[in-house]
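URGENT: need a sanity check before tomorrow's submission.

F., can you look over the Redox-sensitive bicupin YhaK (Pirin superfamily) record below? I want to be sure the sequence and structure line up before it goes out.
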Amino acid sequence: MMWIQRSGARYPGGEGAGIETRHAFSFSGYYDPGNVRFGTLVACNEERLAPGAGFAEHPHRDMEIVTWVVEGELTHEDSTGARTVVRPGDVQRLSAGSGVRHTERNAGTEPLTFVQMWLMPGPGAATDPAYEVVRGIADGTPYALERTEAVLHVRRLVDGERTALPDVPWVYAHAVRGAARIGGETLTPGDAARISAAEGLEVRAEGPAELLIWEMHAEPGYG
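Structure tokens as predicted:
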């Protein structure tokens, strides 16, 4: 089964001047009991920060936070000691564990757009916070989250190119750039497909396209 969430259907949010946010799931002040997660994915936020704007230091715990920069540069600082600038093509992961604090801001002179995705770790996951940036991840290289049964696939497709979707219980495909077709539906930037029990499906690019594709093998476990 596949459900498409269009970019315009995302819930608007934001905090402070120069910040524009679009939420795919219940988040912060918005709650929809029928839209709290998909597989282990509990947030997929599109963030747009004007030059100089950012999120002040704030805490997280028991969450895997993966960030993909679309344009601009994201300056990240956290209580693990990480001080980095994340650029398009980099995958950033912050494992909150038992607790971590961080800031995110646009310290550059150009607008910043990024997609941030939160996934719940499984029971028994490591409790120490951890941070990692993979620079310039290659197309098609799988990025597995150690603390949850999920794998991110970054796909950059040329016009007409096809790629198979994983045959797994939960697939989440987010269109970053261009247009791509899945099962008779075309995704454009900001659109996402949630697919349950995927089997034999593929994506076909309609012009150059970039997608973030999550394969998830389990729902969150508690206790």
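My own read: The mean pLDDT is 94. The CA atoms of residues 154 and 212 lie 5 Å apart. If you see anything odd, call me.
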